Amino acid sequence: MSDPQQLGDAPAGDPLLLTPEEAARLLRVGRTTVYALMKAGELRPVHIGRSCRLARAELERFVHRLQEPSALLPRPRSTSAATHYHGPGRPLRARSQPADSSVTCG
Fold it and tell me: 20-74, pLDDT tens digit by residue?
């Protein structure tokens, strides 16, 4: 996986705020992973009216947090179904659990 673009490296025409879909492409993950990261508090969205956006700087902070040594420490595995996300912080819901509809983006 290549490094995400740095804000200073972005051409003048690149937007500062990205849709969750654009953020997913930039991070090279799935759209649902971005929504799960927002729900878990790993990514903080910006709400403008009914629109949900992610700042490039927020994506950069997230990637830097992933590169911290504490993020690389193994965590105990759950005995239930596999989780969607294995980055810093607590694991997300297991696939077998029903989805919560509290995410307001989308």
Answer: 999 999 999 999 999 999 999 999 999 999 999 999 999 999 999 999 877 556 6
Annotated domain spans of the chain: 17-71
Report phi then psi at 17, rounded to 5. Answer: -110, 135
pLDDT tens digit sequence for 72-106: 566 666 554 444 555 555 555 545 444 554 566 76
Q: Which of 41, 37, 11 is nearest to 24 (CA)?
A: 37
Q: Which residues contact 31 (CB under 8 A, 6 or more apart)?
A: 20, 21, 24
Amino acid (one-letter) located at 52: C
Strand partners, 47: 52
Q: Write the CB contacts of 23 (distance below 8 Å, at least 6 apart in sequence).
A: 34, 43, 54, 59
CA pair distance 97, 99, nearest whole angstrom: 6
* Amino acid symbol at 91: P
